[in-house]
Design brief:
Blueprint lengths: L8 H12 L13 H10 L6 E7 L5 E6 L5 E9 L2 E5 L3 E3 L14 E4 L2 H14 L8 E4 L9 H12 L11 E5 L3 H10 L4 E5 L5 H7 L2 H4 L2 H9 L9 E7 L7 H10 L5 E7 L13 H13 L3 E4 L26
Parallel strand pairs: 4-7, 7-8, 8-9, 9-10, 10-11, 11-12
Antiparallel strand pairs: 1-2, 2-3, 3-4, 5-6
Helix pairs in contact: 3-4, 9-10
Bound molecules: S-adenosyl-L-homocysteine and iron/sulfur cluster (SF4).
Length: 332
């Protein structure tokens, strides 16, 4: 606005239209002059990622396939759980970190999403759903490694939490990372106090580096040291995610080591039984191993949840996103 010799408060007015009134039409911004509205139309356009396909799971989960302006596809997953409606959003088309149990990894990294594409998933889904089903919680756990698309992620998160933006409470947003230590440290300084989840997935570097190549750069001890110093607001805890792969990281000894590793870190643990996809070399753990793992950690006073495979029948669960289903051309 300053560049255009407009008063600074015009920017606030535009923000209000876009993020509070959710208007997508510059002409509707009636408190701006006609010439400013025209100027905006000449330079910008507003829109959302196009919903190319919607797949509904037997458990009510909805997978959205979006087509972006350059034709690339990404997915977001809406997960209802009583009053809570969680949206899992993507930050990249594909991912370059190559975890061996993750379908997104097989795509490689095609490109980063822009802040508008990250935010656009949230806005598009809310526009698509009725008032009673609006998203209450956001997890940045879809396609891609969020901290590998750092600048766009931070810009999108700021727009989500700021009072001028979408005004989502930072308590209702969770960022999941595979453990990019340098970026976690940098993120601390941004002072965006969203929840942090870390995908640990193994208790020894020999195993972790095999299933998560990033472990070679940031081994477990380095990652956990960084997390011990991570500033947490009062009553907040880190989340550790642990994908259980049968015969690889699901033994009783693993549970014992995990309890030892996490000692002293205010945290809770999410156990995620491996979700299958075609061509995967892994199996989910047996029910017995899963419960033994959980019970041992509980006996050591950890808070431990088993993540239900929501939307697994539509390849909508953790690690199953690859935007594979080819979109039909739906005119919009
Ligand atoms: N890149 C980030 C966020 C996306 S992956 C990260 O790795 O944390 C989100 C979660 O899904 C991670 O905890 C990851 O370990 C888990 N995951 C990946 N593939 C999976 C699979 N096939 N089954 C179960 N969980 C999986
Ligand atoms: Fe990327 Fe996360 Fe999948 Fe690893 S688990 S390949 S970091 S999306």
């Amino acid at each position: 606005m300053a560049e255009w010799n407009e008063k600074p408060y015009r920017a606030d007015q535009i923000f209000t239209w876009v993020y509070h009134q959710k208007t997508v039409d510059f002409d509707a911004m009636t408190n701006l002059s006609k010439s400013l509205r025209q100027h905006l139309k000449d330079y910008f356009h507003m829109g959302f990622p196009r919903i190319a396909q919607k797949t509904v799971s037997a458990d009510g989960t909805i997978k959205y396939l979006f087509q972006l302006e350059d034709g690339e596809n990404i997915e977001a997953v809406w997960i209802p759980d009583n009053r809570r409606k969680t949206l899992c959003i993507s930050t990249q088309v594909g991912c370059r970190l190559g975890c061996s149990f993750c379908l997104t990894a097989t795509l490689g990294l095609k490109r980063n999403l822009t802040p508008s594409e990250i935010l656009g998933q949230y806005m598009a889904v809310n526009r698509d759903l009725p008032e009673t089903e609006q998203v209450t919680n956001v997890v940045v756990m879809g396609m891609g490694e969020p901290l590998d698309n750092y600048d766009s992620l931070v810009a999108a998160l700021r727009l989500m939490v700021s009072p001028e933006g979408l005004r989502i409470s930072n308590r209702r947003i969770t960022l999941s990372t595979s453990g990019l230590v340098d970026k976690i440290k940098k993120f601390q300084a941004e002072n965006i106090m969203v929840n942090l989840a870390v995908s640990l997935n193994a208790t020894e570097d020999a195993t972790r580096s095999k299933i998560m190549p990033i472990d070679k750069k940031y081994p477990i001890a380095v990652l956990l040291d960084c997390l011990r110093d991570y500033p947490l607001k009062r009553k907040r805890r880190l989340t550790f995610e642990y994908v259980l792969l049968r015969g690889t990281n699901d033994s009783h000894e693993d549970a014992v080591r995990l309890a030892r590793l996490l000692k002293g870190i205010p945290c809770k643990v999410n156990l995620i039984p491996f979700n299958r996809f075609e061509g995967a070399d892994y199996e989910a753990p047996s029910e017995e191993a899963l419960l033994d793992f959980q019970n041992y950690l509980i006996s050591k006073n950890y808070t431990v949840f088993i993540r239900k495979p929501r939307g697994a029948d539509i390849l909508g669960a953790c690690g199953q996103l690859a935007a594979q289903s080819l979109p039909q051309a739906i005119p919009q």
